[in-house]
Amino acid sequence: MSRRPYNVLFLCTGNSARSILAEAILNRVGADKFAAYSAGSHPKGEVNPHAIALLRRFNYKTEGFRSKSWDEFAQPGAPPLDFVFTVCDNAAGEVCPIWPGQPMTAHWGVPDPAALTDCSEAEIAAAFADAYGRLQNRINIFVSLPFESLDRLSLQKRLDTIGATKDDKAGEA
After folding, report:
1. What is the pLDDT of residues 5-22, one digit of tens each?
2. Active site residue 88
3. Which of 170, 15, 150 is nearest to 82 (CA)?
């Protein structure tokens, strides 16, 4: 009997860059085992164009990405969440809604490439590539975990360890 995919929600304050990148990465590398979503506590209302450009450069389909509120995932009928990861420090410090499904949570903070505004296009592109590389590294570790053989406490320790990863491969895409 096959199990439904694990539902994973990536959170960031604006849901315009890092959480969108994480959603795209996990939906690609974990396609059969995971269903990834993203949301924000105070969504910007649009996806950062640099995030879209980077995803297109790596041959992701970018239709359907949108900046949305995390409230959508706390409503009746929302997918039951198995994991919720914050990818920005601001969202990690906020009081989150009650998520359906009693998901496991962890903080995987990544510097905000969208915060760079007084930089050259090359510096902004490099910051987005760095965020992508950090997220890709962590997500690759996550999808390779032996979920079926880990109890909840052991899995939580692994999730926290992934968040503390030093990202030696950041920027490699």
Report:
1. 999 999 998 999 999 999
2. yes
3. 150
